[in-house]
Amino acid sequence: MNALTVGVARETAAGERRVALTPDGVTRLQAAGLAVMAESGAGEGAWFPDAAYTAVGAQIATTEMLYADCDVLVGVHPPGRTELLRAGQVVIGLLQPLTSPRLARDLAAAKVTAISLDGLPRTLTRAQAMDALTSQANVAGYKAALVAADAYGSYFPMLMTAAGTVRPATVLVVGAGVAGLQAIGTARRLGAIVTGYDVRDAARADVLSTGASFLDLRTEVSGTGVGGYARELTETEQQAQQDAMTAAVARFDVVITTAQVPGRRPPVLIPAAALAAMQPGSVVLDLAASPLGGNVEGTVPDSTVVTGNGVTLIGAGNLPAAVPRAASTAYSRNIAALLAHLIHQGQLRLDTADEITAGVLITSDGEVVHPGVLAQTAAAEGDRR
Ligand code: NAD
Fold it and tell me: Is-above-0.85 flag for pTM?
């Protein structure tokens, strides 16, 4: 049987600079018995030129050749040219099927097998090498601290100079999951005095283990949900949290928010009243900013505004794309680990008795098969009736 050919797509989303498979990833896939072709320019944004792919034995292809000849198409985002996909092809990426169920339906209708890394059961130890949500959240948290430090008009560390001593910045990181803990670590390495906060009980120990302090909001809200994630708070709990946060944030120079609840709009933690209570020159960076809203009232992704009282409010955009080499390298390892798991004797084996496969497989044999996506679609149809 011929070796399966994996195609590396050039990302088409605006501002995206990552590539799903680096030359190192090509070598890993070849070792697993796969052939690789890369769309011309696929790695350019992350400083992996076409020559680096040919040097490791990948074929460089035009867009049309790539879609026509590869068996498995890998990307960071959903493919840019879905109309070129063929029945029987496999697409792998961060497809966000819970928020884009239509794409899942379209791929199923085209008899394309869709595999999405965001469905991975993340708590399984053997899935950790494939965990793209974690690898990209790490990059985002790191960059969030750097962007906030850059926008802040003073130093993060304490500096003692002949002209006097500058006090260190006080930084609050709200949401202490993967991105939040990395933002805490980065801000601490820059020398800031860092405090973390999260609604999950277990996060306190995580924050303290980094050497940061934990913000005690005394709202008596415990937001531990299922699978290590937070649950959505009730309206009363949210109000209590916002009131307590409004009183707390005024004493911080920099606030970075990263709070998410899977499948829900990000919770609003910093209302306008909290921003109004902050000092001029403070910086608030909302990593959860999304078209649906973010953790800070009024944030817009990829947009920076200065409030009337002089607070710089940054709605983060696609921060992993701003660290493209590191983000691509990590993502590429996630893809290579997932493919190594799914390949048996040179061919893909999609056995849903395996927890990892069942988590990532979204469409198969012309149907949407992922239970979470099916449930979401059924709920949306119920709402329309
Ligand atoms: P996430 O991106 O879904 O959310 C980020 C953080 O926001 C979470 O810590 C969450 O508790 C917090 N949050 C949500 N609502 C909040 C609110 N109202 N107020 C304050 N904070 C709020 O989370 P994530 O970064 O993907 O990680 C979620 C959990 O899963 C963490 O415990 C993480 O360590 C864990 N995790 C475990 C593994 C593993 O075991 N291999 C892998 C990845 C993540």
Answer: yes
